[in-house]
Design goal:
Order of helices and strands: HHHHH
Radius of gyration: 27 Å
Number of helices: 5
Number of strands: 0
Largest sheet: none
Distance between the termini: 89 Å
Helix content: 55-70%
Amino acid sequence: MAEGSRTPRLGHPECFRGGLRGFPRRPGSQASRNHGTPWLRAIERAVTRRLPALVLAAFAAVYLWQALAIPLDPWSASESVNARTLPIAYAVLLLLVAVGIGIRPTRSNETGSTGSALGWRRLASHGVVIVAFGVLIPLAGLWVSLGALLFACLLIAGERRPLVLVLAPLGTSVLAWLLIAVVLDVYIDPGLWFS
């Protein structure tokens, strides 16, 4: 029997070179995603691509509605910059970002997947850290909480250099404190732990 004409052994890589009918050739290949009718795949792609933009736009609309409901003092109602200005600007910018995400062109190799598990885990970790920041502000004060927030976010983002992990949050907190508390002379509550 010639070397090229022998049958490959079961479990040998040559046995599966052509792939099996109905199974993808490798994990993540196109064959695993091509299921259903073409119109069903088109709807699935449109929904998974547009869903983040729709959720962001809905959040921005609710935020804008709440920003417009902020009560104003009689003396600041006629001013151009008041308590509503910055929240309204944030809401409008968030709406513009949502529209930009929603109308961006589709790449030909885009499959409709919304991201990897690692990306969602990092996003959830950032969400937990931001909530912890909000809880920590009344206890530790704004500047300590800001340093802790930046430190945790750098860790989540994958930064491991000790000098960057210490100096970036500390420098940002100190510079913000100098600008707000010293230069502008705005009182910021130091928190329950430091008062």
